[in-house]
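Collaborator request, handled under Task 6.
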Amino acid sequence: IEISKSNFVLEDLYAIIPGTNEKYLVITVGKRLNNEKEYTKTTIEPVITKKGDMYIAKVKFNEDADYTLDVKFTDLSRNVTNKHDKFTIDKTNPVITISFDNNNCVNGDKFNSNRKATITIEEHNFNPKDIEVTVNANNTVGTVTDYKAILQNSENWKTEGDVHKAIITFSTEADYTFDINYSDMAGRKAA
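Structure tokens returned to the collaborator:
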């Protein structure tokens, strides 16, 4: 955080403005963890250094969360400047799991009825358009569903907090291979 003001004293930045209950400088951090709907707001007073006419405060954000940063500065003439920023720290890799409803195979890898796959992706900043899906169907008898279109459509996903689930059904007779990958908005790949 940098504030440029030539006629101010470093020690007065957190002082109360005469005749009010407010300080000259108010820095508020909002933090929302993965499953919370609301931000928890905290007013902070980081150490401020002065370099020429510039006042500098450093605030570290280390934990995975959504953040807001609000800075309100009032100068000696009672001119007010407000700045707002919103961002996310995401250092966690997405996780993909796949489970099937029919595991009764014949001859090693053949199934004599439909097979539903439940795809679960655990990711805070989930966007189904970031899913990479490859389904190969050989020796088909009938039309194969466009599984990529299904999985990249947000209406096909049920979300609870950071857990997102979709179901696809392999119903056309074929020999299938199925690969799914996901990279989040921070560029982290699913484990």
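The cover message to the collaborator said: "Residues 147-151 form the longest helix (5 residues). The two ends are 36 Å apart (CA to CA). Please let us know whether this matches your experimental observations."
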